Amino acid sequence: MKKILLLSSLAGLLLTACKGRDKSKPELILTAPSDSMEVLAGGTLEVTAQVSDDQELAQVKVDIHNAYDGHGHVKISYAPFSTIRVENLAGTEDQKTISIAIPDTAGAGPYHCLVQAVDAAGNLSEFQLRTFIIRNPDDEIAPALNVTAPAEGFTTALGSTFTVSGDASDNAALQKLDYSVTRAGSDNKLSQGTETLTGTAGSFSFDIATDGTAWTKGAYTLRLVLYDAVYNVDVKVITINLN
Amino acid sequence: MLHRCFFLLLSLLPLPLFAQIQGLVKLEDGAPAFGAHVFIHELNRVYSTDAQGKFADASVKTGHYHLHVTFLSYKSADVHIELPLREPLVITLEAGDLELQKVVIEDFGTKSVLNDQSQNIQVLQQEDLQKNTGQTFVTALERVPGVQALNTGIGISKPAIRGLGFNRVVVSENGIKQEGQQWGGDHGLEIDGNDVERVEVIKGPTAIIYGSDAITGAINIRPGLPPARNTWSASVLGRFNSVNDLWGQSAAFSVNKNNFWLKARFSTQDYADYKVPADSFVYNSFVLPIENQRIKNTAGRERNASLTAGYSFAKGYTSLRFTYFDQKSGMFPGAHGIPQAYSLQDDGSARNIEFPAQHVKHYKILWNTNIQAGRKNWLEWDAGVQFNDRAELSNPDNHGFGPAIHSNTELAFQLFTASLATRFHHEVNERVSLVYGASGQWQQNRSSGFAFLIPDFRSWQAGAFAYGKWVAKPEKAFLNGGLRVDAGGIQADERATPFYLNSGSQISGYLRSPHIRKVFGNVSGTLGYSMILRKKHNIKINLGTSYRMPTAPEMTANGIHHGTFRHEQGDSTLRPERGIQFDLYYGRKGSKWEMYVSPFFNYFLKYIFLDPTSSFSPLPEGGLIYRYDQADGIHTGLEYYVDYHIIENLHLGTQGQWVYTYNLESGYNFPFIPPASGRINLEYTIKPRKKKNIRIETGLQGRWAAPQVFTARNELSTPGYILLDASITLEAEVRKQQFRLSVSGNNLINTRYYSHVNRWRYLGLPEPGRNFSVSLQFLFGGSIKSK
Fold first, then answer.
1. pTM of the entire predicted model
2. Band of the pLDDT at A37, cuts 50, 70, 90?
3. Do the domains A25-135 and A144-242 sit in the same CATH topology, yes or no?
4. What is the ipTM of this complex?
5. Which residue, among A114, A182, A186, would best test binding to B if mutated, counting the most B CBs under 10 Å from its CB?
6. How far is A214 from chain B (nearest CA, A)?
7. Correct CATH for B120-783 of 2.40.170.20, 3.40.50.2300, 3.90.650.10, 2.60.40.3230
8. Domain range list for chain B
9. Residue A20 has what DSSP assignment?
10. What residues contact B709, with CB distance under 8 A and at least 6 apart?
């Protein structure tokens, strides 16, 4: 068993240049990408990070994720393109350029590029964030979604079934329609599904039942996301009331 | 101190087995105490004295007993007797104003009263706990200097003593340690605060008696007194808190017929999202909305029940208790993954519980027995089985890679625990008493859910101790000490999960936690001294060692714990944590005031804590990997308490606590340690002269916390705060029916402040705003016919 030799352990710690004694966080400068920079799907995003610390560095992490805000009508991919890249750093000053291949399937829209570094002692840097836009080179034209039912603000009885119908078109090729129903403001999906669509035009019609204990009276959000073959989208959000 | 008056009487009635106990309780001026409570500890029996101040019971065996006598505002008395009585028992009660003196303070583990005992013990009764305006049992305990609540939001909390919580504080009920998933940062204590009649808080090195995990203290929930023989009582309580529109109800019933007693309680609590004095919060420099100034999806509900049956017989008592705790609470969606504005929008209702959420059910069966084993010995045993069924629920689609998951159970843990503890109390003579004890516990955990954090494991712990108490100078000096031997083992199953790369391709069999099989052992000891000088000063000194074996999660965890917002990783090479503890106490009592100050110093060898590594998690939204690590360190601080009666009805009190830790290896402090904090309160009691059955208490309180700048690596510092509270309580008693109405306001100025030991501090979420709390309680009872 160890003895309580406080002074000797303090002295011992002062003598050892222990990695754990590093109390300063690394400095991170992000020189690329610039804010609101555009990248084509299928192309490459270059991330350049300069990191420095008074003691040994360890890693830098790049986290790319969709900056979709849950609303709007923008051309964005609903395919979950996100990626994490971790690169090792060496010494007390290091610069890394990380090339991230943006897949063809990543459609247009805003994305976040979040970068953070850590030193060998585990001190985290402040993070740096850039927003960049992915564009689709082959087909910049989004599909068009037209919902004939239900209308915005549609009201029906709790427990009943309602029909969702409409038509879709695209300059090149349609792919699918994703739908979900959530309680307004919540992301808990009470109903969800996918309808397959092909060609340059098509229509859809399906039923959504509101029975079951998860459903209660109140406002719900029906979200319809139409994809074309290259993941350009059109989004429609409709409020539905159950009473 | 207490006065014992034994009158000479030469009545020798040598009954070989049964002895009559009869006594007289009187006041200083010689008047009889009518309605005083006399409690025989060993038999769990209560008597009420009659108009002549007398009580009697013929169905008691010869032997040694402890009696506790309490009466109105008199100082309580603790009397040690031997039956048959050689002389009449007359107990004289001294007048006293100070609250603490009304309660008998006895540590159940060693059967010692406050000053005889070197441990720093404080007892809270149900009426103290019911002054709680928070919503958990733990917030009620914050009245004890040195106890603080570690919170997740406001509905989930666990206790810390001297700044250390989690597996370093033992919470036990009727001698059985509560085993939930106390390692988890967002896991609360599964105890219904309404159902606690009496709780002892023991600070300092207590591991000798309470087991190896009681590093900085123990919280012992003790059964309240049973109803007096052939009486019944009932109570109903309703409560409303405005900060989260909480409605709570609790109803209890108890009855004693011919020393067989039954107690039942049912409590519910339903609450909405809590309000904060802020429209937005700042996380990682993003300004995010707090819609309607309510923290979204923090609503919850609780359904708790208990049933106890007991029997007091001539040679002791036995009781069987069943408890059920069921809590479902929503978790702030911003605390689950990266907070994004769209997930924080108003969901149309403040009362709904959406995902993410947690649902905890805790079932417990406790069996406690105390029997006389020969004239001078008592044997106690406590047995318990408990089952903690915990689920953390969320939508799977927050998680990025891999195939679609069709389950909302992210993590589920089912923990089964069986425990047994036994103690043998032996009175060697009037000066020396000994306690021998042994305890054992067996556990099995099963994990499931679509995410992974800890594997299935089984663990066992066993310990034996001997503890002795020596009265060096009667009523002046006491020495106690003990030795404990512990052993324990853990066996965890290997767990591999598929791992999905960014491309969507899969690596199967990615090892999340290895198979482990470990056995640990330890010997620890303690020595304490308590000295009373001129009946005013009380000095206590304790020296002890402590020990804690690493828990299964500390050795095996590997995954993102969304509740704590980080990737937590265990280390199977951890060694047991040991500590050398030194503890002092100085208390002083005057006629109008009392105070104590209690500094402590602990040196830890291999203190276990979650430390950031220099690697990022490969899991989505994982941040940095935090791994359980060990370092030698210092843990020091103090508590203080002062109560001064300016005039009889007006008193001014202040209390506080300070803890400082230092990691000798990194030069940082240990994580999640509360800052120095305290409270000052002024209370005025109105007792109308004409209506003696009415009592009104008014109070004004200031609570403060210093900024916490002594932080661990990557931990945020937290600014200090000052809060103002006020309360008024009306108590009335009409024909043995009591009525109590309390109205209180907390954080009256609606200050925006942060608690360093709230999990959601990390997100920049402020603490609850102004709260008005109203509670109403009726207590009533009567006698029942007996044969």
1. 0.81
2. confident
3. yes
4. 0.74
5. A186
6. 10
7. 2.40.170.20
8. 3-96, 120-783
9. G
10. B717
